[in-house]
Specification:
Layout (H helix, E strand, L loop, with lengths): L8 E3 L4 H11 L3 E3 L5 H7 L6 E4 L9 E4 L2 E5 L4 H6 L1 H6 L1 H8 L4 H6 L2 H7 L7 H6 L3 E5 L4 E5 L4 E3 L2 E2 L6 E7 L5 E8 L7 E9 L27 E5 L6 E2 L1 H8 L4 H11 L10 H17 L2
Parallel strand pairs: 1-3, 2-3
Antiparallel strand pairs: 4-5, 5-10, 6-7, 6-10, 8-9, 11-12, 12-13, 13-14
Helix pairs in contact: 9-10, 10-11
């Protein structure tokens, strides 16, 4: 039976170096930590993998620390770790907001940001945050380390550039200027898979300038504090999406209505068991307008 564990093999590395050697010499292996997705598949009888490497005890991968202007978040940092971290709350508050939306307390205590990203579901709650923050995924093998821009990490639905001998070890997030916002829309207020999830960074208005006119987003002219507009969405395409057309339009002073129209060209939602494409498109456009006009 696919739900049995008696036919499965679990390797227990004592260090990150051990784990990487196991992936190199004894693979293919499936990395596991919080198991919040693997156990669901096991219970449903859909888990076909039989050989795993348990990363849960590798505390070196849990660190959340500042390295100059860069926030480094270990792949085994749990959602509870992200919620409680003063560094995350100060530097990337939208990530703490996303972590609060992931399941219940039990899931937050076990689920890891690395697992959320590696799972490669387009509805992953942290994915739009990392995309909007221009994060890098740090991948390590026994021989090499490489940094992949988050927006280049996914190659298709549940597909990534991670090689079988590599682990996600951390995420590096440069300083994010501007006002950060996150919103998840699901069937329920909590503990639901997202229908639409969005992260937005809006530059702070230039000091001394008034608010934008009715229907206009704040300007991003030279001297604007906080850098460019950033808009990322999940559950509206096979992978997380950066709304580049809408971002560029806002940067040149386009109206919110124009940004909404271009946003709809950047996404490709589908009808599924949780929602319809029409609903997702309407919600995505409405959320963008609310975020751009929020004070």
């Amino acid at each position: 039976m696919l739900s049995t564990i008696s036919t499965r093999t679990l390797l227990q590395p004592r260090s990150l170096s051990d784990a990487l050697k196991m992936l190199r010499d004894e693979g293919p292996l499936v990395p596991m930590a919080g198991c919040t997705d693997l156990y669901v598949a096991l219970n449903f009888g859909t888990l076909t993998d039989t050989r795993f490497v348990n990363l849960w005890r590798l505390d070196a991968l849990r660190r959340v620390e500042a390295r100059g202007d860069v926030l480094s978040v270990g792949a085994l940092a749990t959602f509870t770790d992200l919620i409680r971290s003063p560094l995350v709350r100060a530097r990337l508050p939208m990530l703490a907001c996303a972590a609060r939306e992931v399941g219940g307390v039990q899931i937050q205590n076990r689920g890891t940001i690395g697992g959320n990203v590696a799972n490669a579901s387009p509805s992953g709650d942290t994915l739009p945050v990392l995309a909007a923050a221009d994060a890098f995924v740090v991948l390590k093998s026994a021989a090499t380390t490489r940094r992949v821009p988050f927006t280049a990490f996914y190659t298709g639905y549940r597909q990534t550039v991670r090689r079988p001998d590599e682990l996600i070890v951390s995420f590096e997030i440069p300083a994010v200027g501007g006002r950060q916002m996150f919103r998840k829309v699901g069937t329920r207020a909590a503990q639901a898979i997202s229908k639409v999830v969005i992260a937005v960074v809006v530059p702070h208005p230039e000091r001394g300038r008034g608010a934008a006119g009715a229907g206009q987003a704040p300007s991003t002219g030279s001297g604007q504090a906080g850098g460019p507009f950033r808009i990322a969405l999940g559950s509206v395409a096979p992978t997380v999406v950066r709304a580049r057309r809408a971002e560029a339009a806002l940067a040149r002073g386009a109206s919110i209505e124009e940004a909404q129209r271009l946003l709809l060209e950047d996404i490709a939602p589908i009808d599924d068991i949780r929602s319809t494409a029409t609903y997702r498109r309407r919600v995505a456009a409405n959320l963008l307008a609310r975020m751009l006009t929020a004070r």
